[in-house]
Design a protein that fits this description.
Layout (H helix, E strand, L loop, with lengths): L3 E9 L3 E6 L2 E7 L1 H5 L6 E10 L4 E6 L2 H10 L7 H10 L2 H10 L2 H5 L6 H11 L6 H6 L4 H14 L4 H13 L7 H12 L5
Parallel strand pairs: 3-5
Antiparallel strand pairs: 1-2, 1-4, 2-3, 4-5
Helix pairs in contact: 2-3, 8-9, 8-10, 9-10
């Protein structure tokens, strides 16, 4: 695994760079954040991830470890390869993606090129609990009413009619041990609703 490149930037384009390491120029596809810190002729340190395919070895570069971890994690979703993973990391910060997954914000994820509504719903379902603490940290401490309202909106964005989503949320929040965070409220309501919509 090539985990990082540390060397002189030989060439730079809108989406990639060639970095010389030990006399070898390595081509790396970059996120916008990683690209913005590079200058031709200057030395650079870029965190990387190598994707191995039957017909190619592709190196991707990131501004920090959070970007790299999201890139790797979203590829655990069936049907998501490095192209869509890179689009996600390039369009949304790790914190924004974590929040969108935790709140079921389909609209935010469909703004990523190449991801439609069904793809966004699939990402939300399969990435639940996999993106670290960024979402729970940003959503902790909301007033109970606001947390329930955000969780209800998330249910609606996932396809449930608002009256049914509100009814499920009322049942969840009425429980004596009701959670107080958006992500936990959403999980509890989804368990209650099961698979049916409408």
């Amino acid at each position: 695994m090539i985990a990082s490149l540390n060397g002189q930037v030989l060439a730079l384009s809108a989406t990639s760079a060639v970095i010389e390491c030990g006399g070898v120029g390595l081509s790396v596809t970059l996120t916008p954040a990683a690209r913005s810190s590079l200058r031709p002729g200057e030395s650079a340190l870029v965190l990387t991830y190598l994707v191995v395919r039957e017909d190619a070895l592709s190196l991707y570069g990131f501004a920090d470890d959070a970007e790299r971890q999201v890139f790797v994690t979203v590829q655990s979703v069936s049907g998501i390869g490095p192209r869509i993973a890179l689009a996600l990391v390039s369009t949304m910060t790790p914190e924004a993606l974590s929040r969108a997954v935790a709140t079921g914000d389909v609209a935010a994820i469909t703004r990523v090129p190449g991801i439609g509504r069904k793809g966004a719903q699939k990402l939300i379902l399969e990435l639940e609990g996999k993106l670290g603490q960024a979402a729970s940290d940003s959503l902790a401490g909301l007033p109970a009413g606001q947390a329930a309202a955000e969780a209800t909106d998330a249910l609606v964005s996932l396809g449930w009619p608002r009256p049914k989503a509100r009814q499920a949320m009322d049942r969840v929040t009425a429980a004596p041990d009701a959670p107080s965070e958006v992500g936990e409220l959403l999980k509890a309501a989804l368990r209650l609703l099961g698979g049916g919509r409408g």
